[in-house]
Amino acid sequence: MSRRFRLRTISGDSDYSPEAPNLIDRREFMRHSFNTAAGVITMASLGAVGFASLLMGQSSSDEGDSSVRFWVPTGAEDSAWYGDMHLEQMPYQSFVDAAATSATGMAGASGVWSGLPVLVIYVPHDENSQAPLEEDKPRFQLMDGYDESGGYVGSGYEVEEEPEYEALSIHDNMIIIFARCPHLCCIPGWQLVSNDFTSDQWMPGGVDAGGNKLFCICHSSRYDPTVIEKNRSRNRTNGTEFEFIGVKRTGGPAPVGMPLIPFEVNGAGIIEALDDFVDWYTFCD
Ligand code: FES
């Protein structure tokens, strides 16, 4: 019998009951991850065959592997700084070391957690947050979020002010992002292609100018991983809307940004993701 995994529902969901938590099995969980044609095509192009063989994360029986692992796209073995660490657990220190070789002090990597594609981004927030706001002094910025019709949804400040988002409070100079593009569900990358959006540069204010954007090769959507906002997204199949905390879309056809995944650094220095908001990661169903 397949293991079943507990989904914690965000507050306000009237269907949630602590006595009867939502449970999904491995097949259902994978469907949330890679079921669309666009997703399959993109996964293949990025060398993703084998995702499905990975262990599931956080299980209801505590058997799972909650660590985040590097995922080296095919063709990036020699160009990505983590090119020789495919499927290895992500040590936090490796991001600190990679960031030290960057002009902006930022570093990012593709990864996989619980069969889900993720992006892990290190930003020298603690070092720069008290310095004057200027080019190439990156820090996390908490900003207002607007839906695709321009309506105000909420503020990134809620990660610091609202108890329900406490797990997403900025810490360790790092964020983890669920890497499915809300346009057609391709998988954006970090500096995997070379253009003005991916160069090692940073501009304040969440503008589309400057580099170090998360770039989706399918139709050129861009995301600023240093801007944390609250926004609203929609399940592609059933139209159900949900609000989430995530990074800002700065350009391209994607309607909104991508949601965050909470994490912690364990005692051995390995990055482990948490399953607090799994229901945010189903919009490509
Ligand atoms: S799927 Fe990402 S821009 Fe179209």
Number of helices: 5
What is the terminal-to-terminal distance?
Answer: 24 Å
Order of helices and strands: EEHHEHEEHEEEHEEEEEEEE
- What summary fits the major beta sheet? 10 strands, mixed
User: How would you sum up the global shape?
Assistant: globular
Share in β-strands: 25-35%
Q: Which structural category do the helix and sheet elements fall into?
A: alpha+beta
What name does CATH use for the topology? Rieske Iron-sulfur Protein
Give an overview of the whole structure.
The chain is of the alpha+beta class. It has one domain: Rieske [2Fe-2S] iron-sulphur domain (Rieske Iron-sulfur Protein), CATH 2.102.10.10. The protein has five helices and 16 strands. The longest helix has 9 residues, at 26-34. It starts with a strand and ends in a 12-residue tail after the last strand. Bound molecules: FE2/S2 (inorganic) cluster. The site of FE2/S2 (inorganic) cluster has 11 residues, from loops.
Offer a quick outline of the entry.
The protein has 285 residues and is an alpha+beta fold. Helix content is 12%, strand content 27%.
Structural key phrases:
285 residues, alpha+beta, Rieske Iron-sulfur Protein, 10-stranded mixed sheet, two-stranded antiparallel ribbon, 5 helices, 27% strand, disordered N terminus, binds FE2/S2 (inorganic) cluster
